[in-house]
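Example record for the data management plan.
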Amino acid sequence: MRKIIVFSGAGISAESGLKTFRDSDGLWEKFDLREVATPEAWARHPKLVLDFYNVRRKQVLEASPNKSHKALVALEKKFDVEIITQNIDDLHERAGSSNVLHLHGEILKARSTFNDDQYKIDGSELNFGNNCKHNAQLRPDVVWFGESVPKMTEAIELCKEADILIIIGTSLTVYPAANIVDFVPDYCQKYLIDPKEVLLNGIKNLTVIKEKASIGIPILANKLL
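Corresponding structural encoding:
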């Protein structure tokens, strides 16, 4: 069975109503992310950081998978599909995708500040005083700006097995994740689905589908199936 690696970014979730960081009306326009999405922010004012992610978590829980998420599930009928996502929501899983690797963490989980153990968040809020079993404060299980991406090595190994790479809803400017395209085999077919101009840096063997995810992914899925 041929292997498809899907590399998804915020654009696929935007059609479910979740704000992206980089769009003109995105989160960078509304928040100084140095104050809510860095280790330094956590050290200065953890409650503000928790409040920021509590709002985002509630938005994720209220959102639903869209046509693009569901079209990717259909590919599992014929292909071995692995999704590598920059997104911290669970919309791929709720749509029914079997194999999802979250490079930047999962907003519906918490992480211990004692030893990095994961905990599922009960409800939509993680608050100051919510501690792990070692009595250490829990933080959002999210990779902040300036932190390493611990699952990057696993993602690279998956990419080495790709027969087909599908890139969706990402500007390919967030590193190190954007380097993923460099690790697929030379023979790998590559597809980029995005309505905007994306800096491609000479990516070979690439087909561009200049559509938003909910249109472009069903088109590609029908072609591949």
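Summary line stored alongside the record: The beta strands are 3-8, 80-85, 100-102, 105-112, 118-120, 138-142, 164-168, 189-193, 206-209.
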